[in-house]
Amino acid sequence: MLQIDQATYDALVEHAKRDHPVEACGMVVGPIGSDRPARHVEMVNAAGSPTFYEYDSTDLFQLYKEMDDRDEEPVVIYHSHSATEAYPSVTDINLAGEPGAHYVLVSTREHGNNPGPVEFRSYRIIDGVVTEEEVTIVDTVIPSEESS
Amino acid sequence: MAIEVRIPTILRTYTGGEKAVDADGATLTALIDSLEANHPGIKDRLVEDKGNGIELRRFVNVYINDEDVRFIGSLDAALSDGDQVVILPAVAGGAR
User: Do B9 and A52 touch (CB under 8 A)?
Assistant: First the structure.
């Protein structure tokens, strides 16, 4: 299950709508081992495409360096699909490189840049196997082990 | 000579869970061969056949001292003792 706070959920949806029809992408990182999406990092889609996304390689390096310095890891890796459903494509599955992360897909196909509901779904993608999981939106995600 | 190589989560199955390992080589190609010698199978995850040779896989990024190797000669990029190498899988995908 993915637990995500309302403000972060809203930020991801806002990003997807703003970038529509280009695919929006980014991460929500959190303390290592916490499974808590704590810090939203919006990334630039270097492909600038409605059907593909890729982080710029320098941005990617900076992000991982920053996470390393802060003892963080990717908790949520998200991107949008602007014309298809919020389900991982073959490309998404083949390129999923973080077995510990929740892969979130937001589909903006219904309302585009305009207000209105989106599809927001989360998956685990491990060794090519996709498993959908429940998304629970809460006011604040309670830290699990990290404070003990 | 020792060069520290940072290994991404997805490739740690080849390094017994180690986040960083030592390797050596005067070029990235030689470094990858040195990695392969100690961690069999890892090379195939980093490079692919291209014509008569090999090239870095499209969705694998390698950095030498913070610089993407694609800007400094790719597999021919030069290495010296004390350099730091970071391997990161691309974060990419999409509906296509």
Answer: no
